[in-house]
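CHAIN AND CONFORMATION:

***
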Amino acid sequence: EVQKLNQQLEEKNGEIQQMINQPPYEKEREILRLQKTLAEREKAQATSDVLCRSLTDETHQLQRKLASTAEMCQHLAKCLEEKQRKEKGNSDDQIPTERSNQVFLTATLLDNETSLQSLICNLQEENRMLKQKVAHV
């Protein structure tokens, strides 16, 4: 391990000596190249930061929307239950209609929740990939 590190140190020292022995115009060229690389990395980092913030905001917005949708569905379910209780004694013919309304409401809730969960998962995956790119840069 120590020999490997010593070898790497010697390689780095060799690179430094090469840089010192280079003519000034080559040093300037190397400096400009390094500055350009740094600027590109900073730009990529800034872009990643903006995308991450955007995804975070969108995720929070979708979570709020999901919560409000779930709340609305609960409210509608309570209203439906109250309506069923009131009309329970009126007629047996209305039961299938009310049952189909309840099934429709439940299916709509599940579809909305599933699509929002899917979207949240996609955003989380994209967020994870952006974080990996940021870490790589």
